């Protein structure tokens, strides 16, 4: 048997899966990881619970991939969400499915996902070199034959898999060096942008709402002066000291990031999406009828969260001390507008330090989608977030890492 010597650079989810599937296909595998442990980013995923994948059908998986979904057909169909779940369960990790088909370890601990992977790699005889920063590749005539470590030493391999991640949350180890290395040998890196990231808001009142979480709201994002929204979603969001965050905001950032380059973006929040304007008016009249002699500022408790009351009152410019029974129809209309179109100006996205993923990366045109081998450097394989692919939250980004990692690992061992 012709055993291939395979190097894997980076022990994130993509690198670990690549190492496992190379080893199980009889390769002699060494993983190089610059940190003193594997999966440092994996540890903080899903707020420490690790949303491993999404158990919905493949159509929905592809619907949640934002960039270059066609490129991922082979990888995702040859290693599906079911395959990922089977892998972990066969390796002894119990899983559970939560709202939105999000799959988590039953224990709610990402550390259990990491330990499962570590154990699987050990069982397959994979060697892991910790605290080992790869500085360069050995490339001659567009063919890779090894790696150069930061101490200058060189190691030869038949195949090299690079899975060093994007550039978000660089404290976890993914600082972009891998992309620089690969760029040196002729690969193109597309525009890198933070994605799945909170947003800065112009209006000062957003700061007063810090900590407020809104459930069952809908958001619409507009380019300034345009009537048609560029992104709409229903769900949950929260206010922070700089602006807005939470699930619907993070998802929206993948779409609106591209549009924010030259213009501000307008965010309109519908605080009562289940009611149309006339239903909302009836609801307000009903609430008001129960407290006709109260001040306006004391009549909104049932309608909106406490923290929002003074901001909404300022926003709709109604005297807070006005008695409820003197509020005019026009004033009710401006209250309805404030509730249905609570508007803010998004000035920018937060930076890579706070971004869940990086949008952009190695140009997919330069990677063979059926093997993950570079089309530019022979025997070099690429996996995970360093490729120009990204998805919404819900376990889809890790699914991309597992699938591209598996395909790269298996192909490199052949
Ligand atoms: C806060 C947060 C929460 C998230 N939650 C989820 C979630 O619940 N579900 C989900 O699907 N996705 C989630 N993601 C996204 C997901 O974590 C990433 O998409 C995924 O980790 C990418 O995997 P990767 O293996 O490509 O890269 P990484 O996980 O970034 O791993 C790359 C590895 O390479 C190492 N490395 C880098 N350069 C070198 C070098 N030169 N030499 C040696 N080693 C090197 C790094 O130290 C690192 O260990 C989350 C991300 C963040 C930041």
Q: What does the model show?
A:
The chain has 414 residues and is of the alpha+beta class. The protein has two domains: 5-192 and 359-413, FAD/NAD(P)-binding domain, CATH 3.50.50; 198-350, Helicase, Ruva Protein, domain 3. The protein is 32% helix and 24% strand. Strands 13-16-15-14-17-18 form a six-stranded antiparallel barrel. The model has no long low-confidence stretch (mean pLDDT 96). The structure holds flavin-adenine dinucleotide (FAD). Flavin-adenine dinucleotide binds at residues 9-15, 32-35, 40-42, 44-46, 50-51, 133-134, 163-165, 168-169, 173-174, 177-178, 356-357, 384-385, 395-398, 401. Flavin-adenine dinucleotide (FAD) binds next to helix 1, helix 2, helix 7 and helix 13.
Q: How is the topology of this model organized?
A:
Blueprint (H helix, E strand, L loop, with lengths): L4 E5 L3 H11 L4 E5 L7 H5 L8 E2 L3 H6 L1 E3 L5 H6 L2 H10 L4 E4 L3 E4 L4 H14 L3 E3 L4 E7 L2 E7 L4 E3 L2 E4 L14 H8 L8 E3 L3 E3 L3 H4 L4 E11 L7 E9 L3 E3 L1 H13 L5 E6 L6 H13 L16 H11 L12 H12 L1 E8 L7 E3 L20 E3 L7 E2 L4 H18 L1
The protein binds flavin-adenine dinucleotide (FAD).
